[in-house]
Please model this.
Amino acid sequence: MKQTLFHITLSFTLVLFWTIAPKAVHAAEQKNPLIYSVQISTNVMEAKAALAYEQLKLALPNYGSEARMEKVGKYYSIRIGTYATQKQTAAVLPEIRHAYPDALIIATRLLEDRILLPRPAEKDAIKKTVAVGTDALPQPTEITPNPTPVNMETGTEAQPKTQAHQNAPNAIRQRIKSEKPENKAAQPVAAADASGDTPNAKDPATMLGMPIKMVTDILLGIVALLALAVLLLQLRPDKTKVLSKQDYYQKESATGPWKLHPKLEKRLQENINHAALAEENLMAVNKNARTVYFSSSARGEGKTIAALSMAHAISTQMDAPVLLIDGSTPEPTLHKLFGMKRSPGFMDVMPGKITVDEVIKPTVYNNLFIMPFGSEDSTKNIHPEKVSSVLEVLCCTHKYVIYDGPTLWSTPNAALIAARFDGVIIAAESERTKWEVVQMNKEKIERVGGSVFGMVLNKRYYYIPRFLYGKV
Model:
């Protein structure tokens, strides 16, 4: 129910976002329509751009009220006019190029937060230059001689200090009349400029310093990635659904028949191919191997289930008698999985109290036999030499003897006992057991003369769908 509700919420969010995003882009474009301007220059230093702005007002008094300085990214651009069409802008371009031969037409949006000059009190003049959407253009008049410079800090007229300073505007106009502009009228619109705006192209509205279209694409990509991640997490097996060994315990019975919990039977049947492959690998390592010791680095890593899986697979696939011995101190569990009594068992055979035939229990599974742990007070009788003698007797009646032993660090002589078997298989838990610990266990067994056949990786989780493994 929770998963279904989550999927519905996620789908609704995606549809809602996909519907609102284009409307947000359209609303932003309506708020800031596309306009055309003439760009005079671009500087990376604000002081130089402000000086160019003041010089523009002196050189082109007719367009001084239309001039503005904008900050676009890291650049400061000087621009003239807010025209509705490119045709309108091209009409005034020749006159502006008499003073500024490098002027070009820019397609942009008039964003108030980008305008630095004129100051806020003077910005209303810019909006009254040319009405957007009309073809009416202001008619240029004669250049006014000797315009009076203005002090930008006080807003008052400033008196020139020298005669040369007073005649500076006339000198600028004389230079403009004497110099011939470059032949750029044929190409009034440039391809691009360094200010960050793209001339003669639709300049998208911005959000967070980026075009809104780009922001919406990024957000849609993030939402898509989140949806994919959630989907993969839903497909990943849930750790809480993996049953523990305690969930398979059976009610104790003195007479049998002894069998496993139906859910554990199903689990062993599902893993039978993997267990059979482990048996093939065992035969490849040592064809004469008949006794196998299962161990692990710590409790709870799945060695008992691994030993049971291998014994069940060999007895089923090879049609050979297999004996599974419970020697897992200090907490034996095989008798609980089959619902049989704990004693008498293997630990009672060690001191010679009873024979092996008295403690071997048949199961409902063909060729699979169980030897329970035995009395708790007999654990002191476990000695490597006695284990070897008992194994010799058991191998006379069973083709394979699999021993569910204790962890290598729980008992002091675990490695010595493991060395009495033909080989050792170490169980490790995925995402828990460190490879350095497994390496230490392997070296510990080999130091006392034992042989490690390999390891079993238990409780593996698939972070992408399982059928994709090996294909990506």
Confidence is low (pLDDT under 50) at residues 128-169, 171-196, 198-204.
